[in-house]
Amino acid sequence: FASGASNAKQGEATVDIAKVPSEVLAAVEADTYWCLSRLLDTIQDNYTFAQPGIQRMVFRLKEIVQRIDRPLHNHLTAQGIHFIQFAFRWMNCLLMRELGLGMITRIWDTYLAEGAADLDSTSAGGSGTPSGESFVVLHVYVCAALLIRWSDKLQQMQFQELVMFLQHLPTSEWGTNDIEEMLSQAYLWKQLYHNSQAHLQ
Description:
By secondary structure, the chain is mostly helical. Helix content is 66%, strand content 0%. It contains 10 helices and no strands. Helix 7 (131-148) packs across helix 10 (176-193). The protein is globular and about 55 Å long. The chain starts with a helix and ends in an 8-residue tail after the last helix. Mean pLDDT is 83; it is low at 1-11, 119-125 and 127-131.
């Protein structure tokens, strides 16, 4: 698995797994398991009956896009595109089908760090977002940044083109700079809008 993914894209680190000491691999496995468990613990209601967690995230995405890029929101609505048609997969698979492995690990690293920062703030008596909620909130803003990145192009498309494009995003050539830009935009919007709900109205 790791060796197959290690040389997938330019700029990603390559590792010869056979040369890594067993104790290092064991430590990496433990850390990986902990990180994945921490992420999944925050989204358990995404995978229960009726998937209420995903429904909330998709609705929130629609609200954010309507506030930040109303022309795009209006165009999607006029074309009969419902956010659940494309964003369900983004929430359900956490963008794993839209981005390469190296890009996903970079995004998830940010999610974990953001959650830990909010947990520290809350523990210290601050008003930070609870750690679990922070991951969900940031992921929705990342999805908004991903969608709005192609706003101009999307607004020139009709229904069938929109559906095909949104289900097969052209991210295969993306690199670290693209992910960094998207994460920066998402974090900025989260800081501006998440704790100021009136701004979304």
